[in-house]
């Protein structure tokens, strides 16, 4: 089973001490991620969710994540998430051996189907909801992709229940990891075993982040 809960590290970046959440795996795990750096369907040795400054405007995300990984002594492929949220204020929830960790920032909520929005390229927004889910059993690729949808639906449900005017932020990301070996399940929808647990854990973690004072 992948390491479920992250380790909290501090890194120096430009003279600022910035916290980083790190999931480090003794063996490669399967990952599906919407992250801009290390995303896609692959095998990884680590996942990081790194805090950046509120005025962050870098667009060379692969290079930045590589710099953070080198400073953290990480080797091999990994997934890199970025957020202006203080990641020390993360929330981890476990439901039936599925652990979801969320960092929740909703300073820039948007509706996904906002027909008035423009598609002009912009620097990435930093008011972000990042979700990392660690599963105890292997899931086939289609099921992993389905889990990203299930987790996103649970996120939207939490936002709706707390009257947030949007389905998320422009830079939200979801990462799901599971063992690379063993008997595999093929389902990740909300009525599958892992999907049900991931949805419940996601909802609770995001609600906790939204309800946190100053969150």
Overview of the molecule:
It is a single chain. The protein is of the alpha/beta class and 215 residues long. Strand 2 and strand 3 (40-51) form a beta hairpin. 24% of the residues lie in helices and 33% in strands. The chain has helices at 61-71, 141-161, 193-211; strands spanning 7-13, 16-33, 40-51, 78-83, 91-95, 98-104, 129-134, 138-139, 173-179, 184-185. The longest helix has 21 residues, at 141-161. Helix 2 (141-161) packs parallel to helix 3 (193-211). Strands 1, 2, 3, 4, 5, 6, 7 and 9 form an eight-stranded mixed β-sheet that branches. It is built from three helices and ten strands, in the order βββαβββββαββα. The chain has a single domain (7-211), classed as L-amino peptidase D-ALA esterase/amidase, CATH 3.60.70.
């Amino acid at each position: 089973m992948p390491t479920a809960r992250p380790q909290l590290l501090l890194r120096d970046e430009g003279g600022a001490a910035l916290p980083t959440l790190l999931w480090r795996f003794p063996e490669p795990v399967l990952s599906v991620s919407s992250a801009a750096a290390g995303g896609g369907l692959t095998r990884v040795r680590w996942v990081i969710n790194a805090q950046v400054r509120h005025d962050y405007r870098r667009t060379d995300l692969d290079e930045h994540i590589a710099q953070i990984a080198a400073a953290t002594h990480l080797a091999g492929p990994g997934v890199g998430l970025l957020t202006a949220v203080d990641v020390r204020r993360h929330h981890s929830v476990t439901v039936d051996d599925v652990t979801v960790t969320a960092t929740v920032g909703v300073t820039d909520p948007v509706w996904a189907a906002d027909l008035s929005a423009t598609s002009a390229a912009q620097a990435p927004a930093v008011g972000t909801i990042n979700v990392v889910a660690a599963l105890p059993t292997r899931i086939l690729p289609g099921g992993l992709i389905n889990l990203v949808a299930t987790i996103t639906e649970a996120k939207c449900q939490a936002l709706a229940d707390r009257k947030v005017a949007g389905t998320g932020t422009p830079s939200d990301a979801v990462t799901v990891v599971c063992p690379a070996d063993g008997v595999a399940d093929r389902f990740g929808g909300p009525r599958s075993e892992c999907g049900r647990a991931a949805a419940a854990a996601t909802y609770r973690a995001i609600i906790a982040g939204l309800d946190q004072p100053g969150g």
